[in-house]
Amino acid sequence: MLIASQLEPTYARTVYPCFDEPAMKATFNIRIVHDPSYVALSNMPAIDVSEMKDENGSLWTVTTFNTSLKMSTYLTAFVICDFDYVTRTERGNEIRIWARKEAIKHGYVDYALNITGEIFSFLEDLLNVSYPLPKTDLVALPDFGAIAMENWGLMTFQESSLMYLPSDKFTNKKAMIAIIMSHEIGHQWFGNLVTMNWWSDLWLKEGLASYFENLGAIFVEPKLSLDKIFYDHVVQPVLREDNEIEVRSLSESEDKIEGSFSLMSLFDSITYNKGAAITWMLSGFLTEKLFIRALTAYLKEFSFSNANQDDLWTHIQKVVDAQDKVQLPASVKQIMDSWTCQNGFPVLTLNLTTGTISQEHFLNKKNENSTDTYKNGSSQPLTWLDKSSKVFPKMQVLESEYDWILLNVNLTGYYRVNYDQLNLKRLAHLLQNNPKAIPAVSRFQLIDDGFALTQFGYIQIETALELTKYLASEDELFIWNMVLLNLVPENLEGILKNYEVYPLLKKYLLKRMLPIYHYYAGFIRQNVDALEDDYFAQVYLEKLFTTACWLGLQDCLDLSSELYAKWMDNPEYKIPLLIRRTVCCYGVAVGSDKEWNFAWEMYNHTNSTKEDKDILLSAMSCAKESWLLYRYLQYGLSDTLFSSNCTSVIILYVVTKDIGHRIAWEFITENWPLLSERYGKELLHDVLKVMGRFVNTDVQIKELQVFYNATLEEDERAAATLLLEFTKFENMERRELLIKVANWLQKNVDD
Questions:
Q1: Among 382, 386, 371, 428, which residue's Cα sits nearest to residue 404?
Q2: Spacing of C-alpha 606 from chain mean position
Q3: Taking every annotated instance into account, which residue ranges of this chain make up the domain Peptidase M1 membrane alanine aminopeptidase (predicted)?
Q4: pLDDT tens digits, one per residue of 210-235
Q5: Where along the chain do its domains lie?
Q6: How far, rounded to the nearest angstrom, does the alpha carbon of residue 402 sit from its chain's CA centroid?
Q7: Is 106 assigned a ligand-binding role in the annotation?
Q8: pTM of the predicted protein model
Q9: Is 661 annotated as a binding-site member?
Q10: Beta strands in 338-383 (DSSP E)
Q11: CA distance 637 to 712
């Protein structure tokens, strides 16, 4: 048994009567009556443990905690558990990490304990504000809805966010733990000591904690290339989202939130990722030194109290005014409100001939009804674009055909860049002759901006494809991953094989993938442990290998069969985790029923982990023989073979495969009464979403309609028809795009 609280944003009121508002800070006296075989934890240290009897004469323990500091209700917390702990004291702060007894015994939280104190000291020194509590407990919860929560003095985590198995050689797990822990420890200052006035300024704590999570992680794991990780995991995903008209701005007015958003919906990528990206940009143009100096003053003024966005701007302004090195073109408030109070971000358009740079809101043109500059390898000073367009004489580079310009170097600014044809030609030329002249993060951004601009109708797909010609000399996996996600999106693998673009894509991509593929295949064959510090190999190697096998690269298929056969010979053998999913899938695909049956046997092995079970569920849907897929779906129906929540997973795995989608659809229509009783409308909706990808004609829509007209209520039928109509429209657009891609590949495939 275990009890743990999670009171953010407004659940404190369900535990004790209170004014449950972040600005109504108070001190709390907490006492917990509990079973004597358990321990009770709260924000403060326990000052008294006594016994009492209830009316039945049963004995209970009463734990009384010291009075808390002045704090917000959402940060009060308690845990009642029978866990063990490991402990260490750092600068008078007694740190204890609690977890299940066997996890403590096996050393699973030792890594976390090693870095907790280091991160605390790092932030104390950096911010020059000491941590005010005498103790900090961190608890690893086996089941927890959030990833982690920063309760003052009693932080809670999902087990996976705190536990590192000493046998795990790879650092990506360490990196994740270091990032999550730095985020929560960062909150002890931003959020706990100084709290936002209200949830409308939630980004003040989440954006800042997401900024410090990177500084903390790089401090304890200096080998990580955090600028790449930050751009790849934080900035790029939110740039992909933050461009629809209906996306909210970072800082919303209170009345708008009370009306249209639930508070929970504020805990999203705009708050966390955009908040961090804007903070990164702010620190970039102020310099980190001035930024931290302003934060220290802000923390000291508002300790044990509350602040809003303007309070932060005021403190930054004071620091800027007190020196003369950094000159801003406008007040901090004017500059920053334009990023936090309106949604989206700008796209900059550069014209080499006239030297003009203009900016506009980046929105989808198809639906129409600050800059760092690099020039020919010499870095240029920061330039401000304070109007909608401006001529920069330095940007007129026509003379030599090799003069080029790169904006937003190392992605310090939160925006995209649209270059004119001339500059793009020169950048493409540069990439082919000397790709390393452009920093890796900027290569990533150049290509990613290219695909995003295509998608939104700013440029043609052919222009973006020109930037991929150089890829044979690209050795960065995170760049490859982004290119492959654009050219071979995961949800389209089943479909693309039906188009004439497939053989062309195969020839074009494989030619460019071979160097990086062979580089990593060498490690997989000889010494996979050598990749233990290669963070991106641990995150993205799978996508590279899956694509190579999907494109039919013989060596990739052979490698998969080889490693899978090795596992069949010796079930104790572990296929390298980095490509385990690919190897299992293609081991089954290339094999016969013998390979499939082995996967089935291993799936039913009691000691395989949850992760391995999922890999095998997916692998069994990779079979190339129809009867195996049909049998698999039949197995899925049986109560005795599967826990019932697996059936829908199996169906969804099979339906996404190129030969599986018809088989799965027939299976669903034959067994609908049973499936519907078990999974209801959820399953049908998920399946229709996937089936929709294969729909290109009205006849196909009719076929699906005939089925769901008989099974769905009237209002649901309308929704399903809309979904299919929309998907058909998307598919037709995609078909047009694929024809353009195919034509371009036809011309360039031999380059």
A1: 428
A2: 31
A3: 111-339
A4: 999 999 999 999 988 888 888 898 99
A5: 88-343, 345-370+378-467
A6: 37
A7: no
A8: 0.86
A9: no
A10: 346-351, 356-361, 373-375, 378-379
A11: 21
